[in-house]
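User: Modeling request: complex.
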Amino acid sequence: MGRAPRILELFYDVLSPYSWLGFEVTRGSHGGSGLQGPVQIPTSLEYEAAIAACFNGWDHKRQWSGFPSLRTSCPLSTNCLYSPLPGNKPLAMVPRKGQYMFKEIPLLKQLFQVPISVPRDFFGESVKKGSVNAMRFLTAVSMEQPEMLEKVSRELWMRVWSRDEDITESQNILAAAEKAGMSTAQAQHFLEKIPTEPVKNKLRETTEAACKYGAFGLPTTVAHVDGKTYMLFGSDRMELLAYLLGEKWMGPVPPTLNARL
Amino acid sequence: MGRAPRILELFYDVLSPYSWLGFEVTRGSHGGSGLQGPVQIPTSLEYEAAIAACFNGWDHKRQWSGFPSLRTSCPLSTNCLYSPLPGNKPLAMVPRKGQYMFKEIPLLKQLFQVPISVPRDFFGESVKKGSVNAMRFLTAVSMEQPEMLEKVSRELWMRVWSRDEDITESQNILAAAEKAGMSTAQAQHFLEKIPTEPVKNKLRETTEAACKYGAFGLPTTVAHVDGKTYMLFGSDRMELLAYLLGEKWMGPVPPTLNARL
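Assistant: Request completed. Predicted assembly structure:
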């Protein structure tokens, strides 16, 4: 009898920089990773697109009206920049955390070897504009052409978190999809799916699935190993994830694979 | 000319479990660490005791009256369980984060090999009781007998975060100090320093120093390397810290040292 299959689920949002780091580590696409490194492991990756309520809880409160149990607060709001509770104002200390993020990301860029760069006005423009259409586009892709999800997700991150470009306008979502290898016709097809109920419902369901696992921010990784389910928060839990999978952690970019690049 | 000295400062609180993990990794006391592992590095460790305002902001608001600039909010409150802003109630999502912590700590216990265990009623009893006297005791120790700071800190963590024992009563602080190797007379001497102005001021100054570095939670590690200063938050930034120090990260307990235990 073979070993039971191990499944990882990664809940992410393309507005979340730490989601990008977690995505690249689990994906191993920039030179392998401790999780998919020298040792082949029977782990299948199921990417699920989850909207980052942490970025939307305040200004986009109405988005949550579809969640009966979540009407008074956004489901992923512990790290919310805009508190979801009515009457709250952004916490006095939030600027400290934002400042920290801006200083830390250039360091993580080097450590993770992901071309991440803080947008000029992230907490203003980017957060305000949100990512709901981009996430619905990804949801549509995941429903019909899941093999493209990884590349399109990455191109959306490349836009907002590497080149400081918009991901809310239709032509910009199209541009990311085409850069990922889609034809214009394909990309246009998915764009037309954005306002449809099946896509909107699917994104809500995915977010609710994250909530049911206990998620409170993104990325959230859920590992199903040997009959147990572990929920881990953050791009900084990848070493713990490797431990749970029984794999040797070799860093976000293992030296041996790195040397081969 | 030799290399410029590299200095690490670790701001911690003995009520903070993640502080304990960060403390043991930088200290390397449970079998070495990636930071003090096989390669000797010219890093001096300066432990500083900082009160975890994140645990005290709400119920112990008056403690902050000594900080002119901080009257309306606790300085380390982003992860505050009890929001420091008047009129706020604990965030609806906090239970999710608490539940996550309870599930994660047993996993981190294995990964870090620190005998950490969640107290029975941490968010109730432990948080409510706070740690200000324990932290003032440590401050007094750091002022007169800094070589004892590490051991006494660990024995306080062992009480609250391993054996679920009190650290607020005088006899319990004494017991931790004696277990760390202090004579009863010495421990009594430091106990009497708790309510004195120099000790109270020193703890305030240390906390303010953390704030000046931009701290918003504990542990906060400040690394001074090659003329630059880096502030890192959390016990999960130790791999990044190793990277900044130019050291190979070998995990919280490097395999070679681990095998020797």
